[in-house]
Amino acid sequence: MTLALDAAAQDLLFREARSANTFTDEPVTDEQIQAVYDLVKYAPTAFNQSPLRIVLVRSDEGRERLVQHMAEGNRPKTSTAPLVAILAADHEFHEELPRLFPHFPQAKDAFFAERPAREQSASFNAALQVGYFIIGIRAAGLAAGPMTGYDAAGINKEFFPDGDHSVLAVVNIGRPGESAWLERSPRLAYDEVVTTV
Amino acid sequence: MTLALDAAAQDLLFREARSANTFTDEPVTDEQIQAVYDLVKYAPTAFNQSPLRIVLVRSDEGRERLVQHMAEGNRPKTSTAPLVAILAADHEFHEELPRLFPHFPQAKDAFFAERPAREQSASFNAALQVGYFIIGIRAAGLAAGPMTGYDAAGINKEFFPDGDHSVLAVVNIGRPGESAWLERSPRLAYDEVVTTV
């Protein structure tokens, strides 16, 4: 056994898990999302900056506001998934930094005084957290359907009028429905990805 | 049980896992990294574009070339970790796209003909894969020490002279050593991160 993680967990999170395009109508509860968050919140970000913010779209009105900004090919699944989450980076994450990284409270001013530095850091670290969140959805026994096909400026204006957030992904969440996915596409071989110096 | 993932796996990947700052001298083998890759390669990216590229720094010469570009505070651990990996986004990932996403071979030209679109997509999707890779290191029973404190332009020039790659993180890998971490910093509460519309 080269890996410490048990085989069932490997299958649940990676090998058998797939991005779903259709879903059953079984609801996804707030308790499930809270359990996902309370697990993946521990995964690392630089200075523990934790810039990911999540909007759960539950109302019919919220769903309509979102679907209009999705690419046409993503609209049917975004309209029918039991739950849709908008994942965004908070460019003003530094306000919480003295509390989040008490070992080095100067980090807020030393590294993040300027907005461009904050935007770059928030985009990367929130993207890490999007990855963790997708794994967390799978840890809950649910399927994720992450999408980046949408009018980002439209979603930002619609859901984040403060101008301080930037959408990174929209994720459909639920139990996989009929014909939920195509055959799995091939992955790059190890030697195509990894080199040694 | 709100989560399907067993408690031991939750602890291994998230709750007990920590970013390590010191390491024992136990080697990290190519077989371990291959097992990590062969697990996390299945996690999703847009159009299965899989833009992450990994450079394993094993030689003394490679280590010296890297350490000179690290921020001073990161040099001691980067010098002493059993293995260091440079994680980068490949901005020319689209060349492999017809093979990686056979369901829609037109994606290469329809979405990724222009370099800025490719860079943006590669940066986000490779960042997702950095997150998956960190989880994979933990799945191998190892500790990761991800860092973004370095001269990125220097690393890019040193290790990716083709101009087609952009470093996203440098990760120390090994078994945690003495005083490997500080006390865990607090996380944001669910209600600070998640809103509902």
TrEMBL record, chains A, B:
Record-listed E.C. numbers? 1.1.1.298
Keywords, sorted A to Z: Flavoprotein, FMN, NADP, Oxidoreductase
InterPro entries (UniProt xref) = Nitroreductase (IPR029479), Nitroreductase-like (IPR000415), Nitroreductase_HadB/RutE (IPR050461), RutE-like (IPR023936)
Q: Specify whether NADP is a keyword of the entry.
A: yes
Query: What SUPFAM superfamilies does the entry give?
Result: FMN-dependent nitroreductase-like
One family name in Pfam for this protein? Nitroreductase
Q: Where is the Nitroreductase domain?
A: 16-174
- Name one molecular function that GO assigns to this entry: 3-hydroxypropionate dehydrogenase (NADP+) activity
Q: Which leading EC class covers this enzyme?
A: oxidoreductase
Q: What is this protein called?
A: Malonic semialdehyde reductase
